[in-house]
Amino acid sequence: MDGWHVAEYVGRQAQVPVLPAPWRLTGTGYLLAIRMPDAVLDEQAFLDDALRLTREGNLAYVMFVDYHTADCGPYRELLFMPGSCDFSGQRCLTISKIYVSSLSSIVNGARNWGIPKEHCDFDVQYGKDGIDRIRARKNGKVFVDLHLTHSGLRLPAKSSWIPERFRRLGQLRHGMHFIYTPKGRGNFRRAAMLCAEVDAAYFPDFTQGKLQFACRVTDFEMIFPVADIQPTHIDSDLE
């Protein structure tokens, strides 16, 4: 557990302060939209079986985010979204695999939004020879090694320009659906993925897909709102 003994990790969890939503975050990051084979999304995306049966589409998203400020303090994050699934009758994007560098983010991410965050270490090098290199490491092993670059005009963007149904996220945790829609604004530039190595035992191997779009987002401000939390099944006697 990256140098954390299990007992120490459990003890740390118990000491993490409760930081309820909403959260306000700032930072920079990359967004990759990748068209993936259905077999990879069904079998290697780390989706819960109940969600996998409702998954639609084969456009997946990979994000690396470097949060400069957050309610839990600065941290880094790498995540994968394998398309949309059904959450209490609503189609929502869902995060099926996510690593962060902060224990507080792990604990409060689960409490607030049902996000299944795990811990890893990050080695990030910005701008070396015009290339940003992102490495994620767990148990001493690098499981994602990603080289990215960016160019072109820096353009403004707001989440409000995108219909809510395309921004809505859902998570399944302990028999509950957590549904929430982040909002934000920032600046983006076109990006390119130069190369990547992925260990599929730790993270979905997005190199098996075809990159459709990539951008680098800077100076963003985001708000993660209070989630709408609903049971996955409603007893008919209570309807």
Descriptive notes:
It is built from four helices and 15 strands. The strands form three sheets. Strands 7-6-3-2-1-14-13-10-9-8 form a ten-stranded mixed sheet. A three-stranded antiparallel sheet has the order 11-12-15, covered by helices on one side. It has a two-stranded antiparallel sheet with strand order 4-5. The protein is mainly beta and 239 residues long. The protein has one domain: Acetoacetate decarboxylase-like, CATH 2.40.400.10. The protein is 13% helix and 52% strand. It starts with 5 loop residues before the first helix and ends in an 8-residue tail after the last strand. The longest helix has 11 residues, at 103-113. Mean pLDDT is 92; it is low at 234-239. One of its GO terms (molecular function) is lyase activity. It comes from Chitinivorax tropicus.
Explain briefly what this protein structure is:
The chain is mainly beta.
Features:
single chain; 239 residues; mainly beta; Acetoacetate decarboxylase-like; ten-stranded mixed beta sheet; three-stranded antiparallel beta sheet; 15 strands; globular
Strand percentage, roughly?
over 45%
How many individual domains?
Answer: 1
User: Fraction of residues in helices?
Assistant: 10-25%
Low-confidence stretches: 234-239
CATH topology category name: Acetoacetate decarboxylase-like
Globally, the shape reads globular
Residue-averaged pLDDT, rounded? Answer: 92
The H-level CATH homologous superfamily, spelled out, is: Acetoacetate decarboxylase-like
Supply the number of helical segments: 4
